[in-house]
Each structure stands twice: as structure tokens, then as C-alpha cells.
Write a structure and sequence with these properties.
Helix content: over 70%
Radius of gyration: 41 Å
Strand content: under 5%
Distance between the termini: 135 Å
Number of strands: 4
Structural class: mainly alpha
Number of domains: 3
Shape: elongated
Low-confidence stretches: none
Mean pLDDT: 81
Order of helices and strands: HHHEEHHHHHEEHH
Length: about 350
């Protein structure tokens, strides 16, 4: 029994460190590897839980699936929400929920395939229970969302809850919520329901006390070495942001359509202005001119001096001088005398 307990503790420490270490590398490699690890741990958790692997101690039973892998997932989602925000957390939750759905489906397909082909029973692949796995998926998704809500509620400035208390109460609250949601969904109505709830509450308290130092030390360490500020978001930030993102996308789409419309209208207006400018500033066709005084008749029938007409219908401007012939005729005193 002691050896089983030591093995369980060693497994838990190794997996907790693995998850937190993967998250600490996000500044170098992003969060893709962290999401991959989260999906892998979710699959292992499902298999180990379906197999019923556990360690029995006097007065308490520790399920390996929840003690090691589920708690590691909680720690991972916890630190992602604290340091990376609701968007990254939703990706992590989607990864956990998606893998939790796929693993029992794959196991079921394998069992059906072996039965149809008359092959030996797959003893090493546990046969999934629809009720238990459905309760597990629902409880896990609800737990992870509750984690974010509880963290923000306890982080309200007016409550002045220290970081270590805030971390422990959030972790314990998620653990106990999972007990009620999962046990109710999977075992409600069964004679052992109350016994399962009572025993699991005790085991989850022990797990929370054991896992809390890893969580708190990581939060404090990351906040110290990277100079990160642990944000105080609205209590329903993880849910509100979904609506806000959809609203922002809708508004952005509307803004794009509005700008496209404005651009089209601008192009039409520019074309019309260019055509109007061409009509106004270009002299073309026949220009009626008086044969005697050289005045020009416009479209309305009025007569204008040639200078006025050209200036009004083109970009040309006039300046005046006297040609040599007119100088000789009208101003002979100013004519040039040969030297």
C-alpha cells in the first residue's frame, strides 16, 4: 500500500511539473505544444478513469485519473487563464472537451469492430459508459468555466483576498464542484451515490492541499520573473468575451461593408467630377465667332469677348501686349529706330 501511494505521489509531481513547465515555455514557442499536451493528458485521464485505476488508503480512495491527470489539467487551465486570458482558456477548454468526447467514441468503435470481426475482446481498452462519459464531459467543461469565474470573484479588490488563499479556494471550489456535477450525472439514483459524494469530497480536499503549493509557487514565480501583473477581469469575463468577440466581428463586418460602399460611391463621384471637368475645361467642336468683332457666342446665345470665353472654358489665362504691326500703326513714336 505504501509503495502504491509513493508511486501515485511521484506520478502526480511529475505530471504537475510537466504541465507547468510546458506553460512556462509559451514565451518561446507559444501555446501550441501546451494545447497538445493538454489533449494527450485528457486522453490518458479518460482511459485510466474508465479502467478504474485507484489507490485505496484507510478511509479514502484516490482515483489515479482525478488525482494525477484531472488535477494536472486544472492546473494547466488555471495558469493559462491567469496569464494568457479568456481566449487562450477557451481553446484549452475546447481541447479538453473535444478529446473527452473523442476517446470513448474511439474505444466504442474499436469494441464494435472487434465484435463484428469475431476477434478477441479488447481487455486493455475499457468499454466506455455513455452515462459516465457524458457526465464527465459536462462536468469538466463546467469546472473549467467555473474556475475562471471563481478566480475573478475572489479577486475583487474590495474583498482583498491574498493570492495564496485565492488560489487555494478556487482550486478547492472547482474540485468540489466536479464531485457534485460528475457524481450526480453518473450515479444519481444509485444506492452508493451519497457514499461516493462523501468519499470523493474528502479525497479532493486531500488532492487540493497537495496540488496547491505547485500552483501558488508557479503563479508567484511567473509573476516575479516576467514582471506580469495578474489582471482583475470581470467575474463573467470568460463568458462575456464570447459575446463580445461575436459582437466585434459583426461590427467589423458592418464597418467593412460600409467602407466598401463609401469607396464605391467615391469612385462614382470621382468619375462624374472628371467627366464634368473635362466638359468644362475642354474646348471642342464648332465655336460660333462674329466675323467682324471676333466675339464668341455661348450655348445660351450670349456673345462674349474671345478672352472671356476662353478663360471661362479652359485653363488658359490672358495677359496683354502690343504686336509690332499695331505699334507701328497706333504708336509710331514708340517704334524702334535702326542704329
Amino acid at each position: 500500500m505504501n509503495s502504491e501511494l509513493f508511486v501515485l505521489i511521484g506520478e502526480a509531481i511529475a505530471v504537475y511539473f510537466l504541465v507547468l513547465w510546458a506553460h512556462s515555455l509559451r514565451s518561446r514557442f507559444g501555446l501550441a505544444h501546451f494545447y497538445a499536451l493538454t489533449g494527450g493528458l485528457t486522453a490518458v485521464m479518460s482511459w485510466v478513469t474508465d479502467a478504474g485505476v485507484k489507490v485505496v488508503l484507510p478511509g479514502v480512495t484516490l482515483m489515479v485519473g482525478s488525482t494525477v491527470f484531472y488535477t494536472a489539467l486544472l492546473l494547466g487551465v488555471f495558469v493559462v487563464y491567469v496569464f494568457d486570458g479568456p481566449h487562450a482558456t477557451r481553446i484549452a477548454i475546447s481541447t479538453v472537451a473535444g478529446v473527452s468526447i473523442m476517446v470513448p467514441l474511439i474505444a466504442l468503435v474499436l469494441h464494435v469492430q472487434m465484435k463484428l470481426t469475431d476477434a478477441p475482446h479488447l481487455a486493455y481498452v475499457p468499454m466506455p459508459s455513455l452515462r459516465i462519459n457524458s457526465a464527465s464531459v459536462f462536468a469538466t467543461a463546467a469546472d473549467l468555466i467555473f474556475l475562471a469565474i471563481a478566480w475573478e470573484f475572489l479577486g475583487k479588490p474590495q474583498l482583498r483576498v491574498p493570492l495564496w488563499i485565492r488560489s487555494f479556494l478556487t482550486l478547492l471550489g472547482v474540485m468540489w464542484l466536479d464531485v457534485f456535477l460528475f457524481a450526480t450525472g453518473a450515479f444519481a439514483g444509485a444506492p452508493v451515490y451519497r457514499q461516493i459524494v462523501t468519499g470523493t469530497l474528502v479525497s479532493r480536499l486531500i488532492i487540493s492541499v497537495f496540488a496547491f503549493p505547485f500552483l501558488y509557487l508557479y503563479l508567484a514565480h511567473q509573476n516575479k520573473i516576467h514582471g506580469m501583473v495578474i489582471e482583475h477581469r470581470p467575474v463573467l469575463a470568460i463568458l462575456k468575451e464570447v459575446t463580445e468577440v461575436r459582437l466585434e466581428l459583426s461590427l467589423a463586418q458592418q464597418e467593412i461593408e460600409r467602407r466598401k460602399k463609401v469607396e464605391r460611391e467615391k469612385e462614382v463621384l470621382i468619375g462624374e467630377l472628371q467627366r464634368a471637368l473635362a466638359e468644362v475645361k475642354t474646348l471642342r467642336g464648332f465655336i460660333p465667332t462674329c466675323a467682324h468683332c471676333r466675339k464668341i457666342r455661348d450655348e445660351s446665345g450670349e456673345w462674349h469677348q474671345i478672352e472671356d470665353y476662353i478663360q471661362n472654358h479652359s485653363e488658359a489665362k490672358f495677359s496683354h501686349g502690343i504686336c509690332p504691326e499695331c505699334t507701328e500703326l497706333h504708336f509710331p513714336e514708340f517704334r524702334e529706330t535702326p542704329t
